[in-house]
Write a structure and sequence with these properties.
The structure is a single chain. By secondary structure, this protein is an all-alpha fold. Helices cover 76% and strands 0% of the residues. The protein has helices at 3-31, 54-79, 83-97, 105-136, 142-160, 163-173, 185-224, 232-246, 249-260. Helix 3 (83-97) runs parallel beside helix 7 (185-224). The chain starts with a helix and ends with a helix.
Length: 263
Amino acid sequence: MSLTSFGRRRTLRVSLIFLVLFVLAIPALAQAPVATPTPQALPISISIGSGGEQGNVSSAIQILFVMTLLTLAPSIMMLMTSFTRIVIVLGFVRSALGVQGAPSNQIIVGLSLFLTMFIMSPIATRINNDALRPYMAKEITTNVALERASAPLRQFMLKQTRRSELDFFLGVSGAGPTNVEDVPMRVAVPAFVVSELRTAFQMGFLVFIPFLIVDFLVASTLMSMGMMMMPPTLISLPFKLLLFVLVDGWHLVIRSLVESFGI
């Protein structure tokens, strides 16, 4: 045996001995406690108010009520203001002209929204002065603020509501005959919406009449000339647009809508 091979075997034995000792020492190292710095315990306390705190309960109810109003704001805007009549009549104008893409829905809704803001601005001013400002200054309670805010809005709706619709919903609800200021909102709102739909369709019918006459004239002219294959709407559309522009149709429609609310 050479000296080189003997050295290699000796080195291998020593390595095996160290490996065995290291494997045996692993459990002992795992069981040994590791000294880690413990942070100082911070005093943390959680306190929950008692059930008798009426202020916290009322504040939570007020926040819930405000969130509910924000959720119902689009419905209030559409069904308790002049928006319903305006957007329906403008839609009838577009249909009577025969141009389905001009003006677009965004323009009609936007114009209806700004006209509604213009018509309802006196009522919004009354609500702000009589209800919102005193409530924000904590001069009145929530119930008083709601009553003051609903009074001008109820007065506006009942002014535009027909007597027949109001009597019908009063009879269905079991409220019976009552004073105008005592009509509940659950009766005033549906009666107002039904009355607004009827008024809007009546105005739409009046808008359709002149354009319908133009269609009849064009159709009869084409029939007398033997041009039965020519679509009458293709010929009548330029004449309807010309008639609408000559009489300043948009001004007449908007003026009629605004004046129909008594402004």
